[in-house]
Amino acid sequence: MAPLDTDRDPKELYQERVERIADAVALKETDRIPYIYATRFWNAKLADMTCKDTMYDVEKSISSNRKAIELLQPDAFGAANYAYGGALEKLDYHPLEWPGGGAADDVCFQYIDKELIVPDEYDEYLFDPTGFYLQKYLPRIATGFEGLKHFPNFPTLSEWNIVYNLRAFANPELQESFKTLMEVGEMVDHSMTRMTEFITEMMEAGYPMAIGGFCKAPYDHIVDFLRGSKGGMLDMFRHKDKLLETIDKARLLLNTNVVEGAKRVGCPYVFIPLHWGLDGFMSPDQFNEFYWPSLRQTIHDLIDAEMTPVILWEGDCTTRLEFIGDIPPGKAIYWFERTDLHTAKDVLGDVVCLRGNVSPSLLNTGTADEVDAYCKDLIEYVGKGGGFILDGAASITDEAPIENIVAMAESVRKYANN
Predict the structure, then answer these.
(1) Nearest to 411 by CA among 78, 74, 77
(2) What letter does residue 320 receive in the DSSP assignment?
(3) pLDDT value of residue 5
(4) What are phi and psi of 3, to 5 degrees?
(5) Per-residue pLDDT averaged across 95-103, rounded?
(6) pLDDT (tens digit, 9 = 90+) per residue, 389-418?
(7) Per-residue pLDDT for 2 more than 60?
(8) CATH class belonging to 10-38+210-414
(9) 2 φ/ψ angles, rounded to the nearest 5 degrees
(10) Which segments of 340-396 does DSSP mark as H helices, in order?
């Protein structure tokens, strides 16, 4: 096993790790390839817990994550906190099944693909997104929001009409929703407060955060939780102009709070997982019309605000490689799940830092020696000259044997530059 950094000064280690990742993003050669810890529930496996344990108990989420970070000694970490099971249950949240809440206790959460708005409602969303969310969208996605359908439409009111419409707050259904939301808010606040304290603890121990903000590709925002996959695909043919207009609107809304949130926590890395623009979901022509222009503008907006977009290309996007290099060089991370990283390095190596992509099948069913050999190849080929961060294909798979994840984490020290 390669030597760990447990005896070094945490402040010195923290700064060294921050600079190592920043240099990798800037396409500079580093002393060794950085490794980032990211997972959904592997930390629960490591601590002999179920996914439900860490989904419903923030202290178990914290203790299991601490154990994983101390074992793997990453250059940065994702908090891997999903301890909102009780809040989701209280809210009766429909678009998701989670461990202990519709899904088995020891499996990852699952998103439910639904059509939650119809094409005729595009105009309502475009005219007043906040009003539409309050009065129509939110009541559809959770029982706890149902009373909000009675919320006054204040922008249409003036003078005494504002006062008259305050009677809406006497509505028992609206009052019940407020009570539920206050309880849920306290539950979420408790979980996030404890995780913030844990993040501070880890940073003081020498581990930087890997994610400071979260954003979406505008098309994905619409398809994931508004129109659903079928609706989004049909709209490219049946409601093209309205879809494109809504994509533009979504981009502006998505960028509103992301930058300030990342600056507030002091971490410039903004995570953007991609879902519907990859090979198999739309043609290259559709990608270049409906998906890439708004995503590219989002990337540019974040870079202009001195943020570093971390784009997770889920699935295979080999046919996209010739297009997606059209961004400022040395300013973003492309985290590839299934796309061959050798090919990506050949095409994009002088433009963007690559991240990934030890496959789930290898991590789950391979041996530690096989994982080590695969990582060695990535380090030597993709990491040559800089611009590479080692990680799992999308994150550490929940079922992976501990020795395989240790082998992946250790490889960056084992095959460090001399």
Answers:
(1) 74
(2) G
(3) 60
(4) -65, 140
(5) 96
(6) 999 998 899 999 999 999 999 999 999 874
(7) no
(8) alpha beta
(9) -70, 155
(10) 341-348, 360-365, 368-381
Pair of tokens at residue 347: 């095409």
Which residue has tokens 């990337």?
299
Q: How far is CA 310 from the centre of its chain?
A: 9
pTM reported for the whole predicted model: 0.95
358: left (phi over 0), alpha (psi -120 to 50) or beta: beta
pLDDT digits (tens, 9 = 90+) for 27-78: 999 999 999 999 999 999 999 999 999 999 999 999 999 999 999 999 999 8
Give me 136's structure tokens: 């129509």
82 CB contacts (<8 Å, ≥6 apart)?
40, 41, 54, 55, 61, 98, 109
Q: Which of 215, 189, 338, 194 is nearest to 270 (CA)?
A: 215
Boundaries of every domain in the chain: 10-38+210-414
Strands 269-274 and 308-313 turn out to be parallel
What is the rounded CA–CA span in Å between residue 59 and residue 61? Answer: 5
- Phi and psi (nearest 5°) for 288? -80, -10
- Write out the two tokens for 39: 């997972």
Q: What share of residues in the chain are helix, strand, coil (percent, to 5)? A: 55, 10, 30
Write the pLDDT tens digit of every residue in 130-186: 999 999 999 999 999 999 999 999 999 999 999 999 999 999 999 999 999 999 999
Amino acid at site 57: D
Q: One-letter amino acid identity for 259?
A: V
